[in-house]
Write a structure and sequence with these properties.
single chain; about 280 residues; mainly alpha; two-stranded antiparallel sheet; 15 helices; disordered C terminus
Length: about 280
């Protein structure tokens, strides 16, 4: 290797590591500033800069006040109920639809797939008027059940993830089970569905994160204080007269704790699901 080639090689390594450090710093900076702000008193927040360290790192008054005033206990219960039903429903609906579209060839199969793809191109905000009117006429406004049904609607990304996995599972498994007398439901639940574990984990992560962080639909369809989710509860301290960012940051950290615990407990399954659940060419 010539001198010029060595210089280019090491320069490229330096650029790679420098870019990694820079983007890591950009990603971590908001979290660090949020943690610092969460431990500051109201006076400290008003008189110091964002990155100025708080005088007392063991001051948990902001966390207690945020949890109580925003009623985050009730919000966590509501979000947990919504999360369980929405994730479970999305996995079952998506996997069953993918099973039908992949295993059964019928007139209109390609059209249905195209319509699903077309649906992803439509902006959700453009359909909110008709969706709201439909939910209102069905009596599902301001109801956990209505919000769960709305959120559990067909997830196109989940369907395509499951279809991709079905394409990698041999049809001979279905045929052998069918010859032995198994029904289509038995084939799906006892033979094929257990093989979809990586795809299930991937869909659960994508749908779970999206549902847990969802604010727009939750604020639109869950107007009662006793029905608010974690995302809505964080807006308790935002108002026309100003926002209490020290309490908001404390609430954000509290809302991150369940997700962090779940990640630490199931990180092996999460990594496995994400790597195996990637769409293959």
């Amino acid at each position: 290797m010539s001198t010029i080639q060595k210089i280019k090689h090491y320069a490229w390594i330096v650029i790679q590591y420098a870019s990694l450090i820079f983007f890591s710093f950009v990603a971590v900076l908001p979290i660090v500033s949020c943690v610092i702000t969460a431990f500051k008193t109201e006076e400290e927040y008003q008189t110091t800069s964002v990155m100025t360290m708080p005088e007392n790192w063991f001051n948990f008054d902001n966390f207690i006040e945020a949890f109580q005033k925003a009623d985050m206990g009730r919000a966590f219960i509501n979000s947990t109920i919504i999360l369980i039903f929405v994730v479970a429903g999305s996995v079952m609906i998506g996997s069953m639809l993918a099973y039908v579209l992949n295993r059964f060839k019928f007139p209109g199969n390609g059209l249905i797939r195209s319509l699903f793809l077309f649906a992803t191109l439509l902006p959700g905000i453009a359909m909110q008027v008709s969706t709201y009117q439909l939910m209102y006429k069905l009596g599902l406004i301001n109801s956990l059940l209505g919000y769960i049904v709305l959120s559990m609607g067909t997830d196109v990304i989940a369907i395509y993830i499951f279809i991709q996995f079905f394409e990698n599972i041999s049809v001979s498994l279905d045929e052998s089970a069918y010859i032995d007398g198994a029904s289509y439901m038995t084939i799906f639940f006892k033979i094929l569905f257990p093989l979809l574990k990586p795809a299930v984990v991937t869909v659960m992560i994508l749908k779970g994160v999206g549902t847990y962080n969802e604010y727009y639909n939750a604020s639109l369809y869950l107007s009662s204080p006793e029905l608010k989710t974690v995302a809505i509860s964080l807006y308790t301290f935002v108002g026309p007269l100003g926002s209490k960012y020290n309490l908001i940051c404390a609430g954000v950290i509290i809302s991150l704790i369940p997700a962090l615990v779940v990640f630490l407990l199931f990180q092996k399954q999460i990594y496995s699901g994400l790597t195996s659940g990637a769409v293959k060419g």
